[in-house]
Amino acid sequence: MKVLIINGSPHKNGDTAYIIEELKKKIDGEIEEINAYYDNIKPCIDCRYCWENEGCAIKDKMKVIFKDDYDLLILASPIYMYNVTPPLFSIITRLNMLWSNKFFLNKEHKFKEKQGLLVLTGGGNGEPKHALEMADLTFKMLNAKFDINKDYIYSLNTNNVPAKEDNQLNEMIEKIRW
Asked: How high is the pLDDT of residue 111?
């Protein structure tokens, strides 16, 4: 199995990183990880290249996502202002190229079917509604199966209970089977 993890957290030793490391222990196969804060993937700049050309004018590590050779896509993010972090959202904006190529050029990108898994962490009130909607859209665009009832793990009270001490989260991780 090949796994792509897109990590939207700036904290290399934070709650999201803890969950990712626990998930990696359960994966038998190749893992590639993108960190939205450190891999310098630019957001869509609405240059409109994709209106007239197949693909995107920006050449960066986004090519890993578009390579589409993975079987499992894990999106992991703390919740900021009810949504995924801004750098992760910037990566997601680059998926606009898919829509533009289809609408303007009648060229649809056919991604292989894969499984999606969403990991969210949050302090504050931990409201995940917008982050869930953004993840669902992302998974659909990349042809990843995602069922919120079984493909979503979370720790949403991290201001009071760190993820590694969150018994409910650790039960969710334990139940995951690939």
From this structure: 96
User: Quick one: pLDDT at residue 127?
Assistant: 86
CA dist., res. 36 & res. 89, Å (int): 9
The predicted-structure confidence for 45-65, as pLDDT tens digits, reads as follows 999 999 999 999 999 999 999
4/138 Cα distance (integer angstroms):
14
Whether pLDDT at 126 is above 80: no
Tokens matching residue 97: 């190229």
Q: 98 with 109: CB under 8 angstroms? A: yes
CA separation for the pair 9, 88 (Å, rounded): 8
Bridge partner residues of 4 (DSSP): 32, 73
Distance CA 152, CA 116 (A): 9
What DSSP element (H or E) covers 173?
A: helix 167-175
